[in-house]
Amino acid sequence: MERFLTIDKGLMDNFLERVMEYYQLIAPVRTEKGVLFEYISGKEEVDLTYSGHTILPPKKFFFPPVEEMFVYEYEDSGNIRLYDLLDEVSKGKRVIVGVKPCDINGLLVLDKVFTGEYNDPYYAARRKNTLVIGLTCNRPMEYCFCAYLNTGPFIKRGFDILLSDLGDKYIVEVGSEDGWKLIKFNLDLFSEARRDDVEEREKLLMKVEEDIRSKGLPYFETIEGALREKFLDEMWDEYGKKCLACGKCNFTCPTCRCFTITDEPNPDLKSGKRVRTWDSCHFLSFTRVASGEVFRRDRPSRFKQRIYHKFVYSINEIGSISCVGCGRCVEVCPAKINIMDVIKEVTFGVKPLSAKIGED
Asked: Which candidate, 56, 71, 123, 316, has a CA 20 to 30 Å from the CA of 169?
């Protein structure tokens, strides 16, 4: 559905206050380290003025870094009693506000993984109980490249409500029936959008798109074929030697979803819990199997695995690439490896500007 309204910025606090009467609110909060999504206790904490993206994507609210799945207890009879925590996960309605288009697309990728061929009830319950209020970008950050992957700055699905900052007001696009219901109960705060408002939003997003497209990257349609041709290229050894295998790129990525599961017994050995924890394909232990064999022992093979999974294997698995062009992996990489440099080298044969990969 497509319907445009506007809300004056002075009324946004009123809207959020009303939302918090019935929903848990998750929103961007400005901290000393940067902007993070957090649960909100008061409207004054919310910061919808931030540029680019938050430090971490919103995936942690749907796929937590550490998650207790169930607890178990041995009974005197010898039977095992399980206490599934899914009921707790399913409680409570939430609204997450201020999600940028790249992160909305990141959630759509996770949807394909966790609610596709194999349904993850924990993820599905959180997703079902959460409304997404998106926020388009007024300017891109240095490492944004969403326009080359069709993941921003324009977006047509994945949100219940979409906000665009027009200075003294937001233009509001309704994206779902649930989004319309949320607005309808607060309709006194909104006005019908004028054609000028819609056109101004389009011009603003087109300017953002032009700024991103000036970076001279290949479009996603060409990347898969180029990667298939360069599978045995020496460049992977060069990048792999620079990579520290720290996992920062995985943990800040909106779509990385590798995890490990452990059973943690209590000291009495009669009870315990099963825990799911984020993992990283860069870690040496990630491909270790029960026999002790590690299938990607060399660091270059692990670096290459991440790139190929994003742009090649993901197409086979879920029908789309799983990079959204947010640029977080570039910002946090201590080895200063830039995924845009990797893509350029694969597709165009263009080496990074620095003499050696990772150097200033």
From this structure: 56
How many Cβ atoms from other residues are within 10 Å of residue 186's Cβ? 15
| SS3 state of residue 269 | coil
Which among 327, 308, 328 has a CA at the least distance from the CA of 317? Answer: 308
* Domain locations in the chain as residue ranges: 3-213, 220-348
Query: In the chain, what percentage of residues exceed pLDDT 90?
Result: 82
What is the rounded CA–CA span in Å between residue 311 and residue 221?
10
The continuous run of DSSP H or E covering 232 comes out as none
Q: Scan for tokens 């022992």, then name that residue.
A: 297
Mean pLDDT of the chain: 93
**Residue 50, CA distances (Å) to 53, 97, 100, 209, 340 in order:** 7, 12, 10, 18, 23
Tell me the CA distances in angstroms from 83 to 71, 88, 157, 274, 322, one per residue in order.
Answer: 5, 11, 37, 11, 34
Q: Which residues contact 32 (CB under 8 A, 6 or more apart)?
A: none
